[in-house]
């Protein structure tokens, strides 16, 4: 069973633009990797992984735009209160740190997988990158469960 778009947005913490961006990149990557495995094209694995790299770059670009807009919007009011400034800084810090951590982990996994498939990477680096991805996903799952639990009707926590 596949996730709906709303479930995908909640579980990944991405917005609709990022979900569409990464889905399109995954589709192109799947096509290129199939062509590479069937011997139709003979490019390196880094070239096959390039749509995923481009999607991560565009994701970072979008993150920087959102962060800049939040910062400008938050400090544009006539007299922002001290509490509002603290909340803005906290939300910006959370937005940037969680997304940068996710992008960094994905980039490390993608690059180490491509290097391993090209024959230049060691299995130890590949296994450690996959373990790091697993730790990141478990941490993300804890945050999602806590968020869903607090938003559930009738929750007393």
TrEMBL record:
<feature type="transmembrane region" description="Helical">
    <location>
        <begin position="87"/>
        <end position="109"/>
    </location>
</feature>
<feature type="transmembrane region" description="Helical">
    <location>
        <begin position="9"/>
        <end position="32"/>
    </location>
</feature>
<dbReference type="Pfam" id="PF10269">
    <property type="entry name" value="Tmemb_185A"/>
</dbReference>
<protein>
    <submittedName>
        <fullName>Transmembrane protein 203</fullName>
    </submittedName>
</protein>
<keyword id="KW-0812">Transmembrane</keyword>
<keyword id="KW-0472">Membrane</keyword>
<keyword id="KW-1133">Transmembrane helix</keyword>
<dbReference type="InterPro" id="IPR019396">
    <property type="entry name" value="TM_Fragile-X-F-assoc"/>
</dbReference>
<feature type="transmembrane region" description="Helical">
    <location>
        <begin position="52"/>
        <end position="75"/>
    </location>
</feature>
<feature type="transmembrane region" description="Helical">
    <location>
        <begin position="125"/>
        <end position="143"/>
    </location>
</feature>
């Amino acid at each position: 069973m596949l996730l709906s778009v709303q479930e995908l947005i909640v579980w990944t913490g991405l917005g609709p633009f990022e979900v569409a961006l990464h889905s399109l990149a995954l589709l192109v990557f799947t096509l290129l990797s199939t062509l590479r495995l069937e011997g139709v094209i003979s490019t390196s694995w880094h070239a096959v992984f390039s749509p995923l790299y481009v999607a991560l770059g565009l994701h970072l670009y979008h993150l920087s735009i959102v962060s800049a807009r939040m910062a400008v919007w938050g400090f544009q009011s006539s007299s922002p209160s001290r509490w509002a400034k603290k909340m803005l800084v906290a939300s910006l810090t959370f937005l940037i740190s969680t997304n940068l951590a996710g992008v960094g982990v994905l980039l490390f996994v993608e690059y180490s997988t491509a290097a391993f498939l090209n024959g230049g990477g060691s299995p130890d680096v590949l296994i450690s990158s996959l373990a790091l991805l697993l730790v990141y996903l478990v941490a993300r799952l804890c945050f999602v469960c806590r968020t869903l639990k607090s938003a559930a009707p009738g929750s007393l926590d």
